């Protein structure tokens, strides 16, 4: 249902589960609640939480997180905060994912500090996703130095450091700090690290000033995932057209065509 985006089928599935007197696990409920939220059926999602009690199942933080994420996607801050209150009323402790959603949607440094303090008091483990959310939160509030201090935190596992740095590059680029984003990108390369594809796309997206073609082509070469390469290539083609680098635009279009040569519909979309 999720892959085909036929979210409304969740209602039929839930009805079938009930008719056959099956007892879904909490993970099945989380998936069904997530599908309900994706089609903005928050009432149906809450109804499933009520049904958990009938089956002697306890709601989990992941279940509430799915609803909270939906409210945040809709920019409904009050709805998301209401979910937090309901979690506490149900004696379900917020986890690192809960706090990461709250952090990345903060409007001020004061709010960030408040959530960080609450997280400390609750004893929640600061995971990779929390570090990344903290970076995005501080950058959004213009606190670039504080975001940098998060990136340098010794508690970040070595295996996650490259991903955390990539998030910082992406956040800087999307908030107009292109010089700092490029400097960090070069640092990562010199340390023989590799920028995450989403960060590369962010650099390509925001590196739109005149005279950047060579750098954009260099960034494009770093995308070995076909989907990300397509996305990046389209953006560089548009840059070439905008700045009248037509030879490069045609060359990139040839590469795109070659990539989808067996798919007529995709070829048509490219052009």
SSE arrangement:
Elements: H1 9-19, H2 26-38, H3 42-54, H4 61-73, H5 77-89, H6 96-104, H7 109-122, H8 128-140, H9 144-151, H10 158-174, H11 178-190, H12 197-206, H13 213-221, H14 226-242, H15 246-259, H16 264-270
Helix pairs in contact: 2-3, 2-4, 4-5, 6-7, 6-8, 8-9, 8-10, 9-10, 10-11, 10-12, 12-14, 13-14, 14-15
Structure in a nutshell:
The protein is mainly alpha-helical and 271 residues long. The protein contains 16 helices and no strands.
- Overall pLDDT level: 91
Q: Helix/strand/pairing class, anyone? A: mainly alpha
User: What's the end-to-end separation, in Å?
Assistant: 31 Å
Oligomer: single chain
Strand content: under 5%
Order of helices and strands: HHHHHHHHHHHHHHHH
Q: What is the helix tally?
A: 16
Query: Strand count, sense and closure of the main sheet?
Result: none
Would you report the number of β strands? 0
Describe the global form: globular
Low-pLDDT stretches are: none
- Helix percentage: over 70%
Computed over alpha carbons, the radius of gyration is 22 Å
Key terms for this structure?
single chain; 0% strand
Tell me what you see in this structure:
- The protein is mainly α and 271 residues long.
- Helix content is 72%, strand content 0%.
- The chain has 16 helices and no strands.
- Helix 14 runs antiparallel to helix 15 (246-259).
- The chain is globular and about 65 Å long.
- The chain starts with 8 loop residues before the first helix and ends with a helix.
- The model has no long low-confidence stretch (mean pLDDT 91).
């Amino acid at each position: 249902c999720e892959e085909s985006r036929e979210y409304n089928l969740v209602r039929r599935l839930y009805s079938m589960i009930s008719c056959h007197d099956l007892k879904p696990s909490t993970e099945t409920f989380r998936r069904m609640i997530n599908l309900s939220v994706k089609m903005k059926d928050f009432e149906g999602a809450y109804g499933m939480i009520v049904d958990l009690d009938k089956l002697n199942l306890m709601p989990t933080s992941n279940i509430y997180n799915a609803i909270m994420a939906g409210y945040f996607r809709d920019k409904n801050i009050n709805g998301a905060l209401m979910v937090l209150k309901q979690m506490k009323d149900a004696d379900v402790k917020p986890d690192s994912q809960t706090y990461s959603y709250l952090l990345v949607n903060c409007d001020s440094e004061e709010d960030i500090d408040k959530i960080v303090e609450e997280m400390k008091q609750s004893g929640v483990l600061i995971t990779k996703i929390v570090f990344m959310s903290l970076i995005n939160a501080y950058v959004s509030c213009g606190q670039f130095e504080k975001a940098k201090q998060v990136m340098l935190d010794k508690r970040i596992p070595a295996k996650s450091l490259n991903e955390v740095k990539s998030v910082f590059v992406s956040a800087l680029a999307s908030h107009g700090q292109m010089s700092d984003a490029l400097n960090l990108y070069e640092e990562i390369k010199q340390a023989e690290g590799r920028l995450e594809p989403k960060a590369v796309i962010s650099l390509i997206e925001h590196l739109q000033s005149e005279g950047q073609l060579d750098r954009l082509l260099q960034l494009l070469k770093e995308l070995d995932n076909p989907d990300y390469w397509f996305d990046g290539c389209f953006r560089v083609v548009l840059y070439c057209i905008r700045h009248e680098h037509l030879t490069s635009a045609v060359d990139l279009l040839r590469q795109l065509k070659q990539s989808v040569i067996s798919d007529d519909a995709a070829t048509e979309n490219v052009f």
